[in-house]
Specification:
- The structure holds 2 protein chains of 2 kinds.
- Chain A is an alpha+beta fold.
- Chain A has 5 helices and 3 strands, in the order ααβααββα.
- In chain A, a hairpin with a 2-residue loop joins β2 and β3.
- The longest helix of chain A is centred in the last third of the chain and has 26 residues.
- Chain A starts with a helix and ends in a 6-residue tail after the last helix.
- Classes of the chains: A alpha+beta, B mainly alpha.
Chain lengths: ~110, ~240
Amino acid sequence: MEPNPVIKGSLTTIILKLLGESGRMYGYEMTRAVRDVTKNKMDITEAALYPALHKLLDEGLLETTSEIVDGRMRKYYSLTKKGKKETVFKVNALKEALESLSIILNSNLSNG
Amino acid sequence: MDKVTLNKEQLFRLIGFIEKRGFHTPLVIVEILDHFACKVEEKMKAGPKLTLDEAMAAAHYDFGVMGFAPIATAFEANVKKKYKTIYRDERKKVLANPVYVLVALLTAFLFYKGYNWAEMNNYRHLFGFNDVAFLLYLAMLTAIVSVLLKFKPNRKQPDPIIAAIIYRDWWVFMLIVGISFQPGRPGSARGLMFISVAGTIAAFCFVICMFTMYAAMKKGYKESLIVHDYFKSIQE
């Protein structure tokens, strides 16, 4: 599946939103959740997901805890206090951007 | 079909598969393993007739042309950045601790006095700056080796956490000593003063670096050990 540039640009917001809803998630669970919610219309690749997760960790928006699940070490990501605040801001900003985009795409623009 | 869960032996084969793709560090392998295992389980659930090898190949294909590399690269970059911050925080703590600062000042003072004493009493041939610089290099090397032995990172592969700490601040120290370490430097009064001051600063920085490295290493080792122990348990 070709990575959609709009989705790629919104990936951090999608991750923050997912974690805001679920509390904590592990990497694979996030890719699965996006696929399930969008009925396979959207797919997050690992190549995009992990750099985005580590970027959010660097920014202090996420924190991790590790647990042994099914015999392997699983890393759970969750929002920090700063991350929770940032999620509200980023989700609203994305919604506004999408609304504006929708207006442009649906309006009948003509020169003059 | 019911949920497929890989057993220990299968996980061991997954580790072998990851290693064959050039990832040998336990911390990196563990970072990749869970996601890869989930994907393999998904493949096996969707195609119950698939062998583990086929499921691994199919799951790896899903990671794209870069395979596991983006996960490994992102993880290593994050470790570097994380321990840079931890190192900085520890250095602040060391510099705020009067005991550490006093030890560093005392070492610097002893160096300054010792060097000037050698100069004044014509023992330069015994204790010239080049000898002192060499001793400092030797002390640094000994200190690094001692810390490495204490935290035992020698588990076949270099540990990114320990590497992130070890290589943090040494360039400052090397720079100070490197500036002054000039064989055959003429012994003008100004030159000697410069050398003794540079050496004194180097001695102070060296002690502060050592305390900082030790404190950061303690934290890093704790995190690293959890992963290494888990990794060892799978391979047993």
